[in-house]
Amino acid sequence: MKKTKTILVLFLAVCLAAFAAGCAKNEDVEEVEPEDQANLKIYTTFYPIYDFTEKIVGDNANVENLIPTGVEPHDYELSPKQMAKIYDGDIFIYLGESMEPWASKIAEDLSKNGVKVLEVGTDLIENNDPHIWLDPVLAKEMAQKIFEVIAAEDPEHEEIYKENLEALLKKFDELDKELLEVTSKSSKKDVVTSHGFLDYMAKRYGFNQISIAGLSPQDEPSPKKIAEIADICKSKNIKYILVEKGSSSKLPETVANEIGAQILTINPLETLWPDEIKAGEDYFSIMEKNLDILRQALEYEGQ
């Protein structure tokens, strides 16, 4: 399955010259040990795609995630070594321009050089909001797309991939049922978040997200907007504000202090953090913890 790409040496020379200055900060990324060259080589951009892909292929392909633990995907810059590895791979999977603009820039050239490219967010992302993986129904569609690309590249293991996919889809169905249970039996219908990462989930399960910042944590509102949000929270008797793990913004604390609310930490799953990796967490275990946070914020009244 390994491709022979005659342009690789030339590309490396150009890449090293063009990217050295901007990408030097990523040179300390830990390198992965050489893998079985007989297996399909798949490169993914950030955690949910990596986790879904790993669960589908099992031990029958080599999957490497390009963005290090705890690093925000939007502004990440690949090192020249990482770039070379992608061009020597079989499949490159990314979400879309709204999540990894750098990946969109290289996608066409990768395809021209024999790498199968999957933009998994195509026809799923709306209004430039990338957070589709937090909606288990859309996450199922992501997994189906990943399976189809991998099975087409490696038909020898298609039945194994299909069996793994079915097990994965069942887990998404179970998560979907849990979310329906929680949102249908909660006294609150409003959730306040540090930025707008829960829109897809909110629309799917019938609650309202009030975000302090925009789609990006860097989209900070004006003082007037913050005052308006605080007034809305007071009128709705909001007791909790959901803040993504790793956030450095002080705005949620400002609003929480103003309205007398408690800060709850949630992981939007753009990355896993070192403590989560050490504990053996994955997409589903983190989503279960996120679900517990939603139970508290929505004041779940079920048994």
Short précis:
The chain is α/β, with parallel strands linked by helices and 303 residues long. The chain folds into 2 domains: 8-177, Nitrogenase molybdenum iron protein domain (Rossmann fold, 3-Layer(aba) Sandwich), CATH 3.40.50; 185-298, Nitrogenase molybdenum iron protein domain (Rossmann fold, 3-Layer(aba) Sandwich). The protein has helices spanning 8-23, 47-57, 80-87, 101-112, 136-153, 158-184, 199-205, 223-235, 251-259, 274-278, 283-298; strands at 40-44, 61-65, 91-94, 116-119, 190-193, 208-211, 240-244, 262-266.
List the helices and strands and how they pair.
Elements lengths: L7 H16 L16 E5 L2 H11 L3 E5 L14 H8 L3 E4 L6 H12 L3 E4 L16 H18 L4 H27 L5 E4 L5 H7 L2 E4 L11 H13 L4 E5 L6 H9 L2 E5 L7 H5 L4 H16 L5
Parallel strand pairs: 1-2, 1-3, 3-4, 5-6, 5-7, 7-8
Helix pairs in contact: 1-3, 2-5, 2-6, 5-6, 6-11, 8-9
Which structural class is indicated by helix and strand composition? alpha/beta
- CATH superfamily name of the largest domain? Nitrogenase molybdenum iron protein domain
**In CATH terms, what is the architecture of the largest domain?**
3-Layer(aba) Sandwich
What's the total count of β strands? 8
Which percent band covers the strand fraction?
Answer: 5-15%
* Total number of distinct structural domains: 2
| Major sheet details | 4 strands, parallel
Any idea of the CATH class of the largest domain? Alpha Beta
Query: Could you give the order of the helices and strands?
Result: HEHEHEHEHHEHEHEHEHH
Helical residue percent? 40-55%
Oligomer: single chain
How would you state the average pLDDT, rounded? 88
Low-confidence stretches: 3-35
Radius of gyration: 21 Å
Strand order of the largest sheet: 2-1-3-4
Spatial gap, N to C terminus: 52 Å
